[in-house]
Design goal:
Helix content is 38%, strand content 22%. By secondary structure, the protein is an alpha/beta fold. The protein is built from six helices and six strands; from the N terminus they run H-H-E-H-E-E-E-H-E-H-E-H. The longest helix has 22 residues, at 88-109. The chain is globular. A six-stranded mixed sheet has the order 1-4-3-2-5-6.
């Protein structure tokens, strides 16, 4: 298992520096081969969340986890951008970039050719549900906010084998703020969304 994790971390190190930085600090890795097998059998979910802090700072956190909740990859990273561009959607998009990048690393190193991952987010825009063409250099939509990150997500999806299906779904954020909310009875995606919100906020409390 240690060699398996070393191979994974080595593959991450080979990524473009921007993607490598966005994957950030790997907080936990449990059962990579089992997680890969869970992708093949359509039993993996992923979710990210982001938090905005003081001093023009933000962070995102993400998890890719088997449906049995035993096998997982968890990471957290700072959000890089100019202060004028710092807002929640951009931070959430970076989290989705990380999820797609890590899925591709795991799929590639495990030679996965079919399967699926359910990907969740509480910001609809960050899921990039609408089709974006990256082959047009002059196009009005390119002047819309965060098009660079949306195009990167689309690019990452083109690198995922066609038979590995990425199922995108929106979930309601901050459900734990409701008086009648019960963490123990919440869905896996809701619980992990709350966990990643907490992890990203904790990261912002550390000195950068």
């Amino acid at each position: 298992p240690n060699e398996e994790i070393e191979d994974f971390l080595s593959a991450v190190e080979q990524l473009h520096p921007t993607l490598r930085r966005n994957i950030g600090g790997i907080q936990e890795v449990q059962g990579l081969s089992e997680l890969a097998e869970a992708i093949v059998t359509d039993n993996v979910m992923a979710v990210s969340d982001a938090s905005l802090g003081s001093r023009n700072r933000a962070a995102h956190a993400y998890i890719i986890e088997s449906r049995c909740e035993k096998f997982k990859i968890i990471g957290v990273a700072p959000v890089d951008c100019d202060p004028d561009d710092l807002e929640s959607t951009r931070a959430e998009l970076w989290g989705q970039v990380a999820i797609h990048t890590v899925i591709n690393v795991l799929v590639d190193m495990s030679n996965i050719r079919s399967g699926s991952v359910d990907i969740y987010g509480d910001n609809k825009d960050s899921l990039v549900l609408q089709k974006i063409r990256c082959d047009k250099l002059a196009y009005p939509r390119f002047f819309r906010p965060n098009m660079d990150l949306k195009m990167e997500i689309v690019h990452q999806r083109t690198k995922t084998p066609t038979k590995v299906q990425l199922n995108l779904a929106h979930i309601k954020g901050h459900q734990d703020r409701n008086a009648n909310f019960s963490y123990d009875t919440a869905t896996q995606s809701t619980k992990r969304n709350i966990d990643m919100d907490e992890l990203s906020r904790m990261f912002l409390q550390t000195d950068q």
